[in-house]
Design a protein that fits this description.
heterodimer; A: 170 residues; Rna Polymerase Sigma Factor, Chain: A; Arc Repressor Mutant, subunit A; 0% strand; globular; B: mainly alpha; rod-shaped
Chain lengths: 170, 108
């Protein structure tokens, strides 16, 4: 088990025993990466709501974290399920524009590229290229076979490269 | 070997380097506190309901048991309206006591 898992496991166990200060430390430690991933994948307008819901669920399920996976992986899995559930509920009333808020993000170029990818492509690219996740971890999160995940990342990267080269960098 | 695009992609997709967002942490903590409070209230309501139902059952059982006693049966036969009136008054009075919230009972 990695040392960072030990620290998170200890904090999570304290949280499971009702120590909200310990859980606040976990939120403080992981909110940046989680919100970053969610903002890149689903857009910044929904990222904070999903992240907040994920942290609430993580608080309720704190006793279930066993330290085998990284805490960030466990947390992102919760957030991913939250988003899937929300999308199921939204199906009856679909939002006007999925990535409208991306225009307000600082790095317009990469957000434009991501907006043209599918949700799975975005998620796998952000996790594997930007957040240092292994292909196995990302495949597990997205519920994809490892080979499919690898080809999804490669395809997303190729499409982004084409867009990047097609712009001023070509 | 990583080319310019690879470096661009990794740096663009990596989580932004910033301090923890204290406002967000506080918001999550506030939600947790609110949820815990609501859960505690729900538990207290459920416990109160169970207590009240149990109390009502005990009263009903006591009334039924009293009603079977020989003097009461005779009394009922002689003046049923008065007996029923007294029984109903007692029942309503006890139900009132049971329904009154415990904390207000203590404070009053």
């Amino acid at each position: 088990m990695a040392p960072s898992n030990d620290e998170d496991l200890a904090l999570s166990r304290r949280a499971a025993a009702g120590d909200s200060a310990a859980f606040a430390m976990l939120v403080e430690k992981h909110e940046r990466a989680l919100r970053g991933f969610l903002a890149r994948t689903f857009g910044p307008d929904v990222a904070d709501d999903v992240a907040q819901e994920a942290f609430l669920k993580a608080w309720r399920a704190a006793g279930q974290y066993d330290g085998r996976a990284r805490y960030s992986t466990w947390l992102t899995r919760i957030a991913w399920r939250c988003r899937i559930d929300a999308l199921r509920k939204e199906r009856a009333h679909p939002p006007a524009d999925d990535h409208e808020a991306h225009a307000a993000a600082p790095s317009l170029e990469v957000d434009d590229m991501l907006a043209r990818l599918s949700e799975n492509e975005r998620a796998s690219l952000v996790l594997c290229e930007g957040h240092g996740w292994t292909h196995v971890e990302a495949a597990e999160l997205l519920g994809l076979p490892l080979g499919t995940l690898k080809s999804t990342v490669a395809r997303a990267k190729t499409r982004c490269r084409a867009m990047w080269e097609g712009a001023e960098h070509g | 070997m990583a080319d310019e695009f690879d470096r661009f992609l990794v740096s663009a997709l990596a989580p932004r380097d910033r301090d923890p967002d204290r406002k967000f942490v506080t918001r999550v903590q506030a939600h947790i506190a609110l949820e815990d409070r609501l859960a505690a209230q729900q538990r207290a309501l459920a416990a109160g309901l169970v207590k009240q139902l149990l109390g009502l059952f005990i009263i009903a059982a006591a009334v039924w048991w009293l009603g079977r006693a020989a003097p009461v049966v005779i009394w009922f036969a002689e003046s049923p309206a008065l007996a029923l009136g007294i029984l109903l008054t007692a029942f309503v009075f006890l139900v009132g006591i049971l329904s009154f919230p415990q904390d207000r009972r203590i404070n009053s």
